[in-house]
Amino acid sequence: MDFRAREGRMKAALNLVKLGITNLCVIGGDGSLTGANQFRKEWATLLVDLVKSGKITDDEARKSSHLNIVGMVGSIDNDFCGTDMTIGTDSALHRIIEVVDAITTTAQSHQRTFILEVMGRHCGYLALVTALACGADWVFIPEMPPDEGWEGHLCRRLADQRARGSRLNVIIVAEGAMDRGGNPISSEDIKKLVEKNLGFDTRTTVLGHVQRGGTPSAFDRILVVMALLATPETPACVVSLSGNQAVRLPLMESFENNWNTYKMLAHINPPDTKSNINVAIVNIGAPCAGMNAAVRSAVRIGIIQGHNMLAVHDGFEGLAQGKIEPITWTGVSGWTGKGGSELGTKRYSNRPLLLLRMIIRMQDEYSAYMGGLELVQGRDKYEELCIPMVVIPATVSNNVPGSDFSIGADTALNTITSTCDRIKQSAAGTKRRVFIIETAGGYCGYLATMAGLAAGADAAYIYEDKFGIRDLEMNVEHLVQKMKTDVKRGLILRNENCNANYTTDFIFALYSEEGKGIFDCRKNVLGHMQQGGTPTPFDRNFGTKMGSKAVLWITEKLKEVYRHGRIFANTPDSACVLGMKKRALTFQPLAELKEQTDFEHRIPKTSWWLKLRPIMKILAKYNISLDTSEHAHMEHVIKKRVSMPAPLMKKASPATKHEEEE
């Protein structure tokens, strides 16, 4: 409260000047960042007053004449304009989805309607993303008040779902939800409505502050690191995340995509007109969390577009054997929260010489990527392959060229991070101990690197960052010195294929021998547990958006290639990988991505996350300097005020480099 008054800010300025601090990182919500902005505006006059009062000298004032302030947004509501995700939001979503998954099982067994109220007095982000992640029947958020007569519409939708065989209805409500007249809509109001009009057994759950608790997710831990790495040069700004890029915004939304996707997927009346197009979905390679969310989204968007949706079971092998059947709207109900692959999948081995007159959408890692390339190359020989194709990267390894993220990687990363937390905790109160943990990923070091950052590892050995015996020696010595202090635990991560000779057993033996009398070692190989489990909120929503985007792209591409009563697509841009590149979901031709691929090791030739590795050594207290010249390169976004129709006031998406956005 002292900081609200000028006298308090004067004391704060004096403390900074006396300590020689000219760079301030403020982490918090609206109040914290508002205070930081006020402090910055007053800085020059505060120094003048301090000099006049004799509390600082002219020389001290001159040395502290410029105060650089960086704001990092910490708010579970995700209510800061210009950022895709604020610190704390992903962790809050984890808590909410855990509750939704638990409620789902009991609700299905008793055929109930559940109403879940989540935080969001003025911002409905948590409610909206939760609705997308669990496939809710209805969502109430303050930004999008329901139309007049919503009560009847809601009841009709719930009754229709129940008539279609659904045993569960889920309604998500933001605490600030209201109707178009500004009247509050509470979870209790909705419960009374459903019970009175439909007679359904209805329960309400108000989550409250449980959303603020728990351990932070891997995404939130890494988000902080990425924001700190992006040290700006401007006097005052907010560093926020858009996609996987740090973006610098002047200190002073994109609800629309989430909202439109939700509205499409909640639509349960198929169109009267059919496109007479067959769209097939096949999962290729190893299963991973989030695959089913992508399939569900693709199937429902395809049905809305009027297509005949087909499910291919057991990968390319099933496609060759004709394991193909129609898949319906209700056939994918409840798939969003399921792990693995409901369609069944097998690793790609044989050449996919598949002559089928259908649209093919493939999923999962290099198996789909390589299979897609072969299908494209086969177009010269087989006209049946001249059809639009899109590959959606879905692999825990996150090693597909053309995409910064893959479906499933976030779930695997959280599994590794939580396991590392538990393993480290197991050593609490015992003698000094170092844990050697082997992670998955093939030759790709994404999981080892990101888990190392999130779990606080002392080292992470990966194929992309070459290391030798001198590096191992330095790491061991560093741990020896750390263990002589009050530190009792060490954590070493090793990617499974980082080095053919420096195996997990070798590194374990080396650390055990060199640490004798100082620390002992334990070894853990995480194995297939990294592929299992229910998908995280990120993977559920990422998969949902990717599946939706893929089918909408195919629909548009079909219009381009439909000529003289038939489909003929043989241009490079008719067979693409759908990936997240920086801040956008983009389609890149498979043929063009060949140049970016290390086929021998099944990894991209360049990876954005490698630039984060130096920060791991700094956090592990290695005495090294960090070159921030590359890391600080951000895109400076200038916003213009935009008039938007009520009730939608969306966060504006960042413009391209140095451009103004209208």
First and last CA, distance = 38 Å
CA gyration radius, whole angstroms: 27 Å
Q: How many strand units?
A: 26
Could you name the ranges where pLDDT drops below 50 across 5 or more consecutive residues?
A: 246-253, 349-365, 630-662
CATH architecture of the largest domain: 3-Layer(aba) Sandwich
Shape type: globular
Compact summary:
This protein is an alpha/beta fold and 662 residues long.
What topology emerges from the helices and strands here?
Elements: H1 6-19, E1 23-28, H2 30-52, H3 58-63, E2 68-73, H4 89-110, E3 113-118, H5 125-134, E4 138-140, H6 150-163, E5 169-174, H7 187-198, E6 202-206, H8 218-229, E7 236-242, E8 245-250, H9 255-266, E9 278-283, H10 291-304, E10 308-312, H11 315-320, E11 324-326, E12 359-363, H12 365-377, E13 389-392, H13 409-426, E14 433-439, H14 446-455, E15 459-461, H15 469-483, E16 489-495, H16 504-514, E17 520-525, H17 537-561, E18 562-563, E19 566-567, E20 575-581, E21 584-589, H18 590-593, E22 597-598, E23 603-604, H19 613-619, E24 635-636, E25 638-639, E26 660-661
Parallel strand pairs: 1-2, 2-7, 3-5, 3-6, 4-5, 8-24, 9-10, 9-12, 12-13, 13-20, 14-16, 14-17, 15-16, 25-26
Antiparallel strand pairs: 7-8, 10-11, 18-19, 20-21, 22-23
Cofactor: Mg(2+)
InterPro entries: ATP_PFK, Phosphofructokinase_CS, Phosphofructokinase_dom, PKF_sf
Domain Phosphofructokinase: 3-224, 278-553
